[in-house]
Design goal:
The chain is an alpha+beta fold and 162 residues long. The chain has 2 domains: 6-26 and 92-161, PH-domain like; 32-85. It has helices spanning 15-25, 36-51, 56-74, 76-86, 147-161, and strands at 6-12, 93-99, 102-106, 111-115, 119-124, 128-133, 136-141. The strands form 2 sheets. A 4-stranded antiparallel beta sheet has the order 1-2-3-4, with no helix packed on it. A 3-stranded antiparallel beta sheet has the order 5-6-7. Helix 1 crosses helix 4 (76-86). The two termini are 26 Å apart.
């Protein structure tokens, strides 16, 4: 008789965890087309400044928005990490529970439960697992998983692939 699988662990949502999450789950587009919105904002602000009688403060504000947009793209990871570290969840303790029914993440500020049938795809990354579902994707760091938990997720990935 086999026993039901259940795994639970706790970890801290620190800067290294957030950095790993970003590196493993965000696809960074390095093409120049990602700057299109910022260029359009800057050009629109300059056009208002040069060719209309609108208050120049409003025009400079639009130019500044374009510059901030470009900086947020150029420094995407730093920008994202700073926002995460300023959030309430930063340095909070997270409890991860994986069993045969679902994957649960619970902290003082967040409670998430994803059932295995609701997961469309499971992808192994170099440091963990990406779980794709209808609301997006979640990342589970391999450093907080036991070998048995990693094997269980790998089995689930094989089941999802077929």
């Amino acid at each position: 008789m086999t026993t039901a699988f259940s795994y639970s662990t706790t970890y801290i949502l620190d800067k290294s965890h957030f950095s790993e999450t970003f590196d493993e789950s965000v696809i960074v587009d390095t093409s120049k087309t990602v700057y299109f919105k910022s260029v359009v904002l800057a050009l629109f602000g300059l056009a208002i400044l040069l060719f209309t009688e609108v208050n120049p403060y409003a025009a400079w504000f639009i130019v500044a928005l374009g510059a901030i947009e470009a900086l947020s793209i150029r420094f995407r990871k730093s920008w994202w990490l700073a926002r995460q570290m300023l959030s309430k969840a930063a340095n909070a303790e997270m409890t991860l529970t994986i069993d045969e029914q679902d994957v649960c993440s619970k902290s003082f500020y967040v409670e998430s439960k994803i059932s295995w049938p609701n997961i469309n795809k499971i992808e192994q990354t170099s440091h963990g697992w990406l779980l794709y579902h209808s609301q997006g994707k979640n990342y589970i760091s391999g450093r907080c998983l036991s070998e048995q938990a990693s094997d269980f997720i790998a089995q689930q990935a094989i089941l999802k692939a077929h």
